[in-house]
Amino acid sequence: MKLGRLNHIGVATPSIADSIAFYRDVMGAETVHMPFDLPDQGVKVCFVDTPNTQIELIEPLGEDSPIHGFLAKNPAGGQHHLCYEVPDIHEAKAWFEAKGARVLGEPRIGAHGTLIFFVHPRDMGGVLTEIMESPRDELH
Amino acid sequence: MKLGRLNHIGVATPSIADSIAFYRDVMGAETVHMPFDLPDQGVKVCFVDTPNTQIELIEPLGEDSPIHGFLAKNPAGGQHHLCYEVPDIHEAKAWFEAKGARVLGEPRIGAHGTLIFFVHPRDMGGVLTEIMESPRDELH
């Protein structure tokens, strides 16, 4: 497997609204996409474009959100995960499992509408890593 | 100011040698640059190319390295900072200061040989942020 494009950096925040204001006013972001809910993953997300990748703002959605623990330790928010693209999600899952990395659950639909999975940070140099199948229109 | 290119993601590690093996063997990185010391910043660094940005592996160098505290909290390593490019480092410093963000020290030469500074994570949504003047040959 070849290291793929960095699709986005997941940044946890207690407030997407406040973070949008920060990325627009302080960081100078010009394109901020419409926030939306991903109820299956317990998060509200919002993509902010940089010239070469995206920031994915993630806010807890619901009481069981996996982001609550992160924000308890980091109340202001912070870097949560890195997401790399792969051409085939099932091949990627088999690859990481063969390397002994703990894949967290079965592939499921992610924030960009393609299949994704996460790999345990303990097997990834301390970095919670999301692996995402590239959107079809970006493969060509 | 416009949000610039994400030059790299700084990833702290207790061992650049081990991390290089991980990025090559597990992540599939094809281009890993030669590690080098940045004694003024108390770090050894190594850039790993992804198709659209870089990972900057950072290992403590010397007893006063600012990375020791991070590794004490995160012994396996992890995401340490994000670095964005700007066309003019002094304009960028004035911009962030006018926004009330705490710039940490004066601009100094960074890992890519251009001027850089860091901005305090408490003013950046919990993200330690490096601002870097673009290399001249990438401006055109």
Features:
MMCE/EMCE_epimerase (chains A, B), 3 helices, homodimer, alpha+beta, 140 residues, 2,3-Dihydroxybiphenyl 1,2-Dioxygenase, domain 1
Give a topology summary.
Two copies of one chain form a homodimer.
Chain A: E1 6-12, H1 16-25, E2 36-38, E3 43-49, E4 54-60, H2 67-73, E5 78-86, H3 89-98, E6 103-109, E7 115-119, E8 129-133
Parallel strand pairs in A: 1-4, 5-8
Antiparallel strand pairs in A: 1-5, 2-3, 3-4, 6-7, 7-8
Largest sheet of chain A: 8 strands, mixed
Helix percent of chain A reads: 10-25%
Mean pLDDT of chain A: 95
Low-confidence stretches of chain A: none
Q: What number of structural domains do the residues of chain A give? A: 1
Organism (chains A, B): Sphingomonas suaedae
Keywords (chains A, B): Isomerase, Metal-binding
GO molecular function, one term (chains A, B): methylmalonyl-CoA epimerase activity
Family (chains A, B): Belongs to the methylmalonyl-CoA epimerase family.
TL;DR of this structure?
The structure is a homodimer. Chain A has three helices and eight strands.
Please explain how this structure is put together:
The structure is a homodimer of 140-residue chains. Chain A has 140 residues and is of the alpha+beta class. Chain A has one domain (6-138): 2,3-Dihydroxybiphenyl 1,2-Dioxygenase, domain 1 (Roll), CATH 3.10.180.10. In chain A, 19% of the residues lie in helices and 36% in strands. Chain A has helices spanning 16-25, 67-73, 89-98; strands at residues 6-12, 36-38, 43-49, 54-60, 78-86, 103-109, 115-119, 129-133. Chain A has an eight-stranded mixed beta sheet. In chain A, a hairpin with a 4-residue loop joins strand 2 (36-38) and strand 3. The two termini of chain A are 18 Å apart.
